[in-house]
Design brief:
Layout (H helix, E strand, L loop, with lengths): L1 H19 L2 E5 L4 E9 L3 E6 L6 E5 L3 E5 L4 E5 L4 E6 L2 E4 L9 H16 L5 E5 L8 E10 L4 E10 L2 H19 L18 E15 L2 E14 L5 E16 L3 E14 L14 E14 L1
Antiparallel strand pairs: 1-2, 1-5, 2-3, 3-4, 5-6, 6-7, 7-8, 9-10, 9-16, 10-11, 11-12, 12-13, 13-14, 14-15, 15-16
């Protein structure tokens, strides 16, 4: 009789231990569900009942307050996202808890990380326009970024010279000298090309509106105004107005680069009104293509 009583007590302890070792799902309405947790996805929790051959039950995370595993780990949920978990009295952050991140969530997270980093970067950019050297412009610019780097005011300054004319002059004169040496005519004036001598200045202002495409890459657009003398175009002086748009890229903490295309119009200065060669009332189509290498200050 005592032997049977001992067996019964041992069986009750075994069953009690198994019940205590089960997983638990605690619902927001206070109900506790003993179960075996199968999976935790982005928005749902799936579990199986303790009854043999039971089917899988799937609940929305919004209905679940916490889950407790048989090893003592406890995961707590908010109504929208998994926040924290507690395991053996130790707080675990949400990035240590199994969670499937969607593509949109990943993009949003990376963009937020970039915006936090970008906020610490300098708001001043010194720019250099290297390709314009061939076209007869030595250009530098200063840009100030405002409104969390969503607006930029840029002031460029260009020293102009007839770069293309200088190349043509050098090429034509070299060719003429070669032809003269091999010719019996003795005519040394054929083929001589002269460039526009002297220098000019161009300045203006740009207002750029920046829109984030992805971390470190922005699209921008806005008005571009220039006034000055272009020596490559015969030393003409006038005003240009364009609407430009382009791509702005950050590289590391200091370097930036931008590629822009603009279209608009050009109007000659009134100083040509009495020359007879130009119509200062006429507005001419105009365009530009620029690449800027920038350094944050």
């Amino acid at each position: 009789m005592k032997y049977n009583l001992h067996i019964t007590i041992l069986m009750l302890l075994f069953v009690s231990f198994n019940l205590m070792a089960q997983d638990k799902v605690v619902l927001r309405n206070g109900k506790i569900v003993p179960c075996k947790i199968v999976a935790i996805s982005e928005k749902t929790i799936s579990y199986k009942d303790t009854v043999a051959n039971s089917s899988i039950v799937t609940l929305s995370k919004n209905d679940v307050l916490l889950t407790e595993y048989q090893n003592g780990s406890i995961y707590m949920f908010s109504k929208e996202v998994l926040e924290t978990s507690v395991s053996s009295g130790k707080i675990i952050t949400s990035d240590q808890v199994p969670l499937i991140e969607t593509r949109e969530q990943r993009k949003a997270r990376k963009m937020k990380e970039w915006k936090d980093k970008e906020a610490l970067l300098p708001n001043n950019i010194l720019g250099f326009y290297i390709p314009e050297l061939i076209l007869g412009r030595l250009t530098i610019s200063y840009e100030r970024l405002l409104a969390n780097k969503s607006i930029g005011f840029k002031v460029p300054f260009s020293l102009t010279y007839d770069g293309l004319g200088a190349l043509s002059e050098l090429s034509a004169n070299s060719s003429s000298a070669s032809n003269t040496n091999g010719s019996s005519s003795g005519n040394t004036n054929n083929g001589i090309v002269k460039r526009n001598t002297g220098t000019g200045f161009i300045t203006g202002v740009d207002v750029n509106y920046y829109h984030d495409l992805k971390p470190e890459l922005k699209y921008f657009f806005g008005p571009r105004i220039r006034y000055g003398t272009d020596m490559t175009l015969g030393g003409i002086e006038g005003l240009t107005f364009q609407l430009q748009n382009g791509i702005f890229k950050s590289s590391g903490k200091r370097m930036t680069s931008s590629l822009a295309f603009g279209i608009g119009f050009f109007k000659l200065s009134q100083k040509y009104a009495n020359s007879g060669n130009f119509d200062t009332k006429q507005v001419y189509p105009w365009g530009s293509f620029t690449w800027r290498l920038g350094f944050r200050l």
